[in-house]
């Protein structure tokens, strides 16, 4: 049996039963308090799934994979009556947020559990800091199931099964975060080894944490902690980071390491030239769906007549009241996927 469970938590709209909210009365920010309650509700829901598998006698042959699709959304989303409300997310100390290619928008939690995973005793219960991309889950699950499958075209992903089970080295050394395939301003990012090249409009530079949210910071951190300092501006619209030495993306190395910059720039351009045209670009007849016409700076399947927001958000915007398009920006992080694979071998 293969089961895929995509949970609404944690995502907009922010709402949770009172019994979960009451557990976080000490959090003053209302959005963050609801967000925390939603995480607890999600945790309980996953516990219900594992309990059901155990009661059905299936747990001993089960592999449970927990993963997320993107980082948190911390931005302010309008006025809640007591001043601006945050969207509840926080990726601190990583830089950036959902919809950005900074680490805060792309590095997410994941874990593998269950007897069926056959994790070695030295690996079980430990952290694995290997490089892995979401496309790796598919070949990893195929390998786990012992499936023999030869795709017509090469897969983007690679099996991480051996590395997960033994804590060995990742078979992946490169990641494509995103590539611009339109005439819009250059955007995207790639990584090779520890090096990451990122393009983004300076107006969209990532922040480390929402304003006035020092209560979220880890123990020992303050707003004066060096990792919170703003990153230097981009150079030619680009940032170059060494993530092994600078995981918080604080130091742009474009000027100080021009050879590495040119090397990755050449790779980036080569990938752009060979990229498949964006499906939205191919099949979108409404020019108001262009990235330049919406606040998300992304291709949208629908747009309202003014081109300011995606109509898919209109119902939610109405539900929160008013015409403040900022309310639509509460698309929170962590639309979490729970994959349960039960192997009957």
Write a concise synopsis of the structure shown.
With 345 residues, this protein is α+β, with helices and mostly antiparallel strands. It has helices at residues 18-21, 30-55, 103-106, 137-145, 161-166, 258-274, 279-283, 314-320, and strands spanning 2-6, 62-67, 76-79, 84-86, 110-113, 174-179, 188-192, 195-199, 238-242, 337-342.
Low-pLDDT regions: 78-84, 307-345
Radius of gyration, CA atoms, in whole angstroms: 21 Å
Number of helices: 8
Order of helices and strands: EHHEEEHEHHEEEEHHHE
Sheet with most strands: strand arrangement: 1-10-2-5
Distance between the termini: 11 Å
Largest sheet: 4 strands, antiparallel
Shape: globular
Structural class: alpha+beta
Counted beta strands: 10
Average of per-residue pLDDT values: 76
Helicity level: 10-25%
In percent terms, what proportion of residues is strand? 5-15%
Task: Write up what this structure looks like.
The chain contains 8 helices and 10 strands. It is of the alpha+beta class and 345 residues long. It has helices spanning 18-21, 30-55, 103-106, 137-145, 161-166, 258-274, 279-283, 314-320, and strands at 2-6, 62-67, 76-79, 84-86, 110-113, 174-179, 188-192, 195-199, 238-242, 337-342. It starts with a strand and ends with a strand.
Show the helix and strand layout.
Layout (H helix, E strand, L loop, with lengths): L1 E5 L11 H4 L8 H26 L6 E6 L8 E4 L4 E3 L16 H4 L3 E4 L23 H9 L15 H6 L7 E6 L8 E5 L2 E5 L38 E5 L15 H17 L4 H5 L30 H7 L16 E6 L3
Antiparallel strand pairs: 1-10, 2-5, 2-10, 3-4, 6-7, 7-8, 8-9
């Amino acid at each position: 049996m293969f089961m895929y469970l995509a949970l609404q938590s944690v995502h907009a709209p922010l709402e949770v039963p009172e019994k979960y909210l009451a557990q976080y009365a000490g959090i003053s920010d209302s959005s963050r308090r609801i967000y925390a309650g939603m995480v607890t509700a999600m945790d309980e829901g996953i516990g219900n799934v594992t309990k059901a598998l155990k009661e059905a006698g299936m747990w001993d042959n089960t592999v449970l994979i927990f993963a997320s699709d993107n980082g948190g959304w911390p931005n302010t989303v309008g006025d809640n009556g007591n001043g601006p409300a945050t969207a509840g997310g926080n990726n601190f100390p990583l830089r950036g947020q959902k919809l950005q290619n900074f680490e805060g928008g792309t590095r997410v939690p994941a874990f593998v559990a269950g007897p069926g995973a056959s994790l070695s005793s030295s690996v079980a219960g430990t952290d694995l800091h290997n490089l892995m991309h979401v496309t790796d889950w598919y070949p990893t699950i195929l390998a786990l199931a012992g499936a023999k499958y030869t795709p017509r075209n090469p897969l983007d992903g690679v099996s991480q099964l051996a590395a997960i089970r033994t804590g060995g080295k990742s078979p992946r050394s490169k990641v494509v975060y995103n590539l611009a395939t339109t005439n819009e301003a250059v955007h995207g990012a790639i990584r090779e080894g520890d090096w990451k090249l990122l393009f983004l409009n300076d107006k969209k530079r990532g922040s480390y944490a929402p304003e006035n949210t020092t209560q979220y910071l880890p123990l020992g951190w303050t707003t004066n902690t060096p990792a919170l300092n703003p990153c230097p501006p981009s150079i030619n619209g680009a940032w170059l980071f060494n993530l092994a030495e600078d995981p918080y993306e604080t130091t742009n190395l474009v000027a100080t390491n021009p050879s590495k910059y040119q090397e990755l720039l050449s790779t980036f351009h080569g990938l752009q030239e060979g990229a498949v045209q964006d499906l939205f670009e191919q099949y979108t007849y409404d020019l108001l769906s262009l990235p330049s016409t919406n606040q998300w700076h992304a291709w949208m399947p629908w747009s309202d007549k003014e081109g300011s927001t995606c109509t898919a958000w209109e119902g939610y915007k109405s539900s929160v009241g008013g015409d403040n398009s900022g309310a639509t920006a509460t698309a929170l992080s962590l639309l979490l996927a729970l994959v349960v694979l039960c192997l009957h071998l």
